[in-house]
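fold-stage: in
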Amino acid sequence: MARTDFRLRVLVEPRHGAGYDQLLALALAVEDAGFEAFFRSDHLLGVDPADRTYRPTDCWTTLGGLARDTRRIRLGALVGAATFRAPGLLATIVASVDQMSGGRVELGLGTGWYEREHAAFGIPFPGTGERFDRFEETLAIVTGLWRTPEGEIFSFQGKHFSLDENGAPPRTVQRPHPPVIIGGAGPKRTPAIAARFADEFNSALGVDPRERFAIFGRACEAIGRDPDEARRSVVLPVACGTTSADIERRAAVMGSDLIRDNAVIGTPAEVTERVAGLRDAGADTVYLHIYDIDDLEHIALLGAEVVPSAVSGG
């Protein structure tokens, strides 16, 4: 069942990367437009690995800067690659940004999928089964460190990671810790891991969200968790405009057929209608996925014409 506090957020994944000044300008536009949160992708290569114009930036370094340069919006990654950072380091990084933001950070995390990206930056990329194992251990370590009471010690012994008597775990502003977002299309392990650790379950692009939410609900019930404890979210690629020229221009930068086939490409009314449909399907949070990072007018239009009616349910 969808929550009454419906949230509309912006997720950016610029086709050619971006510098910090561009990301900040977009985040401030998102804040001014009335959105609830600004999220960015966690990638070091673009979809086209041969794109020589792509400018990589580290996700959490960027979010640390935005934590100081914004005031209201929540901030996060959707989703980060668990392969990129050691679990104890990740817990410390996210806790640091949570402190810098005054408690506005959320951690979206997945197994990592982009093999070419890992090869280009010298990051190990194990097979699927091992990535899931590492992902699960990473979540246990990160949340375990965050939940460790003051003055107590956290240790962990797993197949891939071990922590030996950490008596100085990183402290977060949010209690018990920043929200953890998990999603993906995996039929078994993804929902099972999310049932254990997720504060929000994100349905994968290109699948029926009702079905994914139902699978997640059954995974929660299997371990005795109330499924309604967690939020349910979806990503919606958007190319919105008031003229056909604006719509076509914004759609042209979307990239892959998967994205375009699952996008809403049209007027503000059409975007609002699609958001309402996702809300009816059980989503309480929708991430509008934006690809042109310099198109601040796009954000302003969505804020003026979509946010008020979508959030109110009108």
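fold-stage: in (second)
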Amino acid sequence: MRDVLTGPWKSTASLAAAVAGVASLVAGGWYWYDQQQEAEREAQMRRQRAIAAAQSANEAARQRALPWVEEAAPAAFLQACRRAWDKQVLADAGWTLASWRCKPATPTTLSIETSWKREGGVAANAPGMLSVDGNLANATAPSPAAFLPSPRAVNATAEAQRSIWTYAHANGVGLQLAMPPPLLPTDGKTPVDPWLAMTADIAFGAPPWLVAGDGLDLVAGLRLTEVSYEAAAQGWKGTGKLYAMRAGASLSARNQ
């Protein structure tokens, strides 16, 4: 009898064991890599599903949101602007007020933009950022406000137009009303808001909070975005958006 663990048999057995060991390591390594790749694919799919769900939720929220409800009603906006105007100086150290603009910034803040013309003053006293030629200055300052949510009611487009023109005729103010650009063709997947926003420019003969602004709240869906004053023309102007429902559209029950 011979010892099979000696001689060539021993070498062959050792080699076979080594090969088997390497093969096991390779197989184990490949299995681990495959499992890691599968886990990464599942994680990627979960992330994609989460992103899609978030986008759907955001779109649903956007569809439920009514932008005009978050904007100040005309009367509340005008009263806030009036308080800011009452504090406004018309001249300061040889600089006179050239223009004044009142805009909503946040539910608790207005933005007051002023421009000034030099009338004998010097640059050191310019109330704001000086222009290159040294004769004009511009400034922006906040002013406190407190706006509550606005009414949800809006009219159909034709009725909204009739309502704001009735206001203009009754109060003797100038009005320019413009429709938004026509909708571009969609792929059928992008939802279209059931409402639109017309732009309205109203020329007041005096500060609108004195008389003419009283009827603005009666125009459903009207929201002012700016009240301005131009000293050279002694003119007041209101700029805003008139929200209305598109033809055949209506607010869903969840928005009522």
